[in-house]
Amino acid sequence: MRAIKSGKMLAAVFAAVFLIGGAGSVWAQAKTKVNVYTALEADQIKAYKDAFEKSYPDVEMAITRDSTGIVTAKLLAEKNNPQADVVWGVAATSLLVLDGEGMLEPYAPKGLDAVKPFFRDPRNPPYWVGMDVWAATLCFNTIEAAKKNIPKPESWEDLTKPVYKGQIVMPNPASSGTGFLDVSSWLQMMGDQKGWAFMDALHQNIGVYTHSGSKPCNLAASGEYVIGISFEYRASANKVKGAPIDLIFPKEGLGYDMEATAIIKGAKNMDGAKKLADWSVTKEANELYAKNFAVVALPGVGKPLEFVPADLEKRLVKNDFAWAAANREKILAEWNKRYNAKSEPKS
Amino acid sequence: MSAVAAAPARRSLDREAWIARAAIAALALALIVTVALPLYALLSRGLESKAGAFVGFANYAAYFATPGVGRAVVNSLVIALASTVVTVSVAFVFAYGLTRSRMPYKGVLKAVALAPLLAPSLLPGIALVYLFGKQGLLKSLMFGQEIYGPIGILLGEAFYCFPAAILILTTALSLSDQRLHDAAVSLGASRWRIFRTVTLPGARYGLISACFVVFTLAITDFGVPKVIGGWYDVLAIDVYKRVVGQQDFQKGAVVSALLLLPAVLAFTADSFVRRRQVALLSARSVAFMPRPERMRDGLLFVFCAVVALAILIVLLTAAGASFVKFWPYNLELWLGHYDFDNKDGGGWRAYYNSIEMALWTAACGTAIVFLGAYLSEKSNRFAAGRMAIRLLAVVPMAVPGLVLGLAYIFFFNDPANPLSVLYRTMAILVISTIVHFYTVAHLTAVTALKQMDPEFEAAGASLGVPWYTTFRRVTVPVAMPAILDISIYLFVSAMTTVSAVVFLYAPDTALASIAVLNMDDAGDIAPAAAMAMMIVYTSAAVRLLHWLGTRGLARRSQAWRGR
User: What is the fold of B8-37+339-563?
Assistant: First the structure.
């Protein structure tokens, strides 16, 4: 009895010492803040952030989120005095632009070997490592289409038909990564001349160019427009929520880009940046990505998304990231010249 | 004996003079650093290349060579003029009803007319989408026209600018001499003639002032066109796109300078006109008391009720939209749109940040503004410093929020500036907001102080009481209503403002009003409406508290005003 009591006492003392010690050590190594620039969707970030901070309790993410084009522009503007430590979930084409400016720090995250070769910069150590792939998808509002007697399009070419005049919304490629992958894939698929001719014709049918890549699908989901040129995650999420939309995967093939991670050269919190790069290639992280995207960096983790065909990967067109990055500025300037001068799209 | 007594008195007089001088100098310096230097940084940056070399007006030339710019300038002017005409005409009739008639429910009508002050300017845009968008409740009223564009901007600006026009015009119209009206009536003047020769001339300066203020608000606002402008490009949107979208700060500075132009012109013209205003009320005036007149009162009441209803519909639409699960296909009630943490804009944290920012702005802003106004009006030390305070205090009125925000980027994000530690902190949001709303707060304080007899200071001084004791024990208690008005004005303005802070927030200092903008940008319009309504509820609750509190306070601290 006595022995038990003193044993209990001892355990209590040990527990107290352990707790105080533990608390003390947590106190001692105050959290470091890592500045993360990202274009991930807002409704994905929270789950990723929570998981990361659970794995690395000593690191706190300070997240600057915006559309791909804006994150890219911000990073380029801050080139001489970088505010970001790490870029996370930003289009690979944008990371190649930053790389071209010499802004990235090469780093081989722990566990890099498991990553599919397609998902990493071939150099060793790599300057960027991919996370997942997102692809062009049309959101087609069936209720509004039926009301207006508008047929369901099957291909990109269909979208230029006069019946869709003023019914289509697409993201502005200057601000949206989804918008840029559309334009870049059309140019790569159809060639320069035909590609711009296609966009001229499409422009006649566009109701408005939006800031974000999600917004076209949201506008189609709420019936403001009939067709939104968007991407598969937002399309699937809206249909799951009950939006009266069909997901359409144009038959010529789908443009895509890759969300990827890279460390900024001269990062003030290099250690935190590396931890995020490490975490980004873990199985845990990839399983979280797989909830939102069908094709992810680690083999065997990806699984089909609801309402998205299982063979999505096969429907992707060839995308030459290097070409897209090298021509990004030129393409955007041309696009701006042609379509951003705010003439009424209908006239 | 007397010499011994005089020496310490002199010393304490010296001391108090030096405290006054130091306070004036500190305040003048603070205004120079937060108003003058940032504006200088902005204007000079527009004349520099990206690398920082002086290039004269090359940026301006390049800007005007971009296609579509001419159209943005014209669009801005057209929409601002149209908003001015619509808003001021409606507001004039409304204010006429409030001041020159005996129509019922004046208090309620005035409260509704001022309600738009509680909302960020993005709210009318959002509500108009729900009302007149392609799936809008009242879409049929659009007769096939599109709400995205000039019509939407015009309606949104009218909502947003209405309270400013009402405040100016009710003040102007309530100053009128009964004797003039009696004379006109006894001379047999027709009603129209009295309106033309007595009413209008009396309200002339108020009308001009209202036009300038509304024009400036409409041309510099970017909340409404951001949400509902569609293809219709205006200058305010252009600044935002250049700076946030393309991170092209030089071009942003160029457009800012252009936006500064109409605001400064309007402001100068307005203060010129005001100087001409002669006192309408002399000691012998008899305050105008409208007599009941069935027909006139009835018509005015119907008009005001319709306008008030329109304002309420806009607010109620936004409130309702935030509870509908999936407009227009699933009309179930749902609280999910208030789950801000899974949306753009910073989640609930942004809302709490806004409250924190508004509290700091109200507390620090009121103290600084009132002390500044006191020193510049009542002190007689350091004339140059007081002059600087008076001049710099009215400058912010002429500086649009977007321009101020960009100026702060240039000034505070310069590594060579020791104040750059403030960049990306809560402090810079508070400072920019105080400065942005400084002028109105300052003028309110000055008006209150001018009503107080300078004898107070003279009596205090002759009794050997230092000025700061007179200030603390007499001035502050007597001016308490004005002080509370200032603090409430600063709080509500800080809750609703978007324009200056949109360039200055950092991930951990995201604000509710900016979250509205970002959620709308991502196409999450229902959560954007929900957050906008959170701002309205908060501002309304604070106003209500203020109203209840001041009723009690007025009874206690203002008893001296009666007999």
Answer: MetI-like fold (1.10.3720)
